[in-house]
Amino acid sequence: MKLSELAEIRSGFVLSRFRRSKDEPAAARYRLLTLSAVDDAGMTIDTDRLEGLETKAPLSSEHLTRTGDIVMRLTAPYTAVLIGEAEQNIAVPSTFIVVRINDERADPAFIAWLLNRPARRRDIERNTWASVLKAVNVQYFNDLELRLPALEQQRLIARVSSLVRREAQLLQQLADAKNALANTLLERHYKTLPKRG
């Protein structure tokens, strides 16, 4: 089954066509998705790394994220992120595609997992068009063949994947906290050493 049979797939908007110039009044304000805001592992969007965008005309709702959308980078590392409640109404520029599942046979979290699999990323890499950025064409996703298991299996895989990603986040936070504590203790100890020479 092709991904385009399960979802509406569209590229983001061309930023230069909508960004207002300094002498134009702002018709609307949005949070703009940036490449740096998307976690390379496909876990999250760092909302602190979103940019502000003032446009000369309002954007169509098709260019704003909704809960359950999958937003995917068109350049390496080709990361797909499932949009949650906190990431709604973010403007999506043309460096991304939006995959909006419209078939009840497909679970969006499972489709995001499929798109983030290492084998899929390698396949995307092989299908990029030659440019400095090595971008993948939107047509690749329209033609993408998927093997879709039963919905219960999709949900199970998506849930386990989510738990594994959450564990990785927690372990990283723990490692960061341990490192910060060790550095603090070492600095305190260093400052108590007697001065020589």
List the defining traits of the structure above.
alpha+beta; 6 helices; Adenine-n6-DNA-methyltransferase TaqI, Chain A, domain 2; 37% helix; 197 residues; globular; 3-stranded mixed beta sheet; 4-stranded antiparallel beta sheet
Structure explained in plain terms:
- The protein is an alpha+beta fold.
- The chain has a single domain, classed as Alpha-Beta Complex (Adenine-n6-DNA-methyltransferase TaqI, Chain A, domain 2), CATH 3.90.220.20.
- Helix content is 37%, strand content 15%.
- The protein is built from 6 helices and 7 strands; from the N terminus they run H-E-H-E-E-E-E-E-E-H-H-H-H.
- Strands 1-7-4-5 form a 4-stranded antiparallel sheet.
- Strand 4 and strand 5 form a beta hairpin.
- Helix 3 crosses helix 6.
- The radius of gyration is 21 Å and the shape is globular.
Number of helices: 6
The 3D shape can be described as globular
Tell me which CATH architecture applies here: Alpha-Beta Complex
Number of strands: 7
Biggest sheet character: 4 strands, antiparallel
Mean of residue pLDDT? 89
Helix content: 25-40%
Which percent range describes the beta-strand content? 15-25%
What is the string of SSEs from the N terminus onward?
Answer: HEHEEEEEEHHHH
What is the CATH topology assignment? Adenine-n6-DNA-methyltransferase TaqI, Chain A, domain 2
Q: How much is the radius of gyration in Å?
A: 21 Å
Class by alpha and beta content: alpha+beta
* CA(first)-CA(last) distance: 76 Å
- What's the CATH class, please? Alpha Beta
**Domains, number:** 1
The CATH superfamily label reads DNA methylase specificity domains
Spatial ordering of strands, largest sheet: 1-7-4-5
- Kindly report the oligomeric state of this protein: single chain
Stretches with pLDDT under 50, minimum 5 residues = none
